[in-house]
């Protein structure tokens, strides 16, 4: 029941915030190779909101299914000593020719946009956001991201109109707790 309420709260937040778009469309990453994009992405930083606030050691995992949809699993902990929890959903491409713009559904019937705004050439880091620009995530294949790449992605986010002053890093290891710029559990 707790997993379901966490999922519902997460999706409601995304759906409500995602529906507020009044700016120009986001510039999307070009030519996203879905096979290469699949796998685990650690959440390095985000604009926190109620459903994710306080989560640590978070990651998104994507798997391309034979029918073309994408299985989505969110991994998180409510503290480093707490057991890992997961919840799942699905994603799909509303336009199969545009692999940078997905629809995500974590709880039926609610769905949200998922826009790959910037993707490093080596598929090592990514900036994902909502068209409303109220929420965004910086993710990487490793639990840490070099400072220069993190700053580059923040610059891209700022140029796209995201509220970079609200961005907080997600603690991926216990030593991150309490450090400047990190979300607090």
UniProtKB/TrEMBL annotation:
CDD domains: lipocalin_Blc-like (cd19438). InterPro entries: Calycin, Lipocalin_ApoD, Lipocalin_Blc-like_dom, Lipocalin_CS, Lipocln_cytosolic_FA-bd_dom. Residues 32-172 form the Lipocalin/cytosolic fatty-acid binding domain. Keywords: Cell outer membrane, Lipid-binding, Lipoprotein, Membrane. GO terms for biological process: response to stress. GO terms for cellular component: cell outer membrane. GO terms for molecular function: lipid binding. Belongs to the calycin superfamily. Lipocalin family. Homodimer. This is Outer membrane lipoprotein Blc. It comes from Dyella thiooxydans.
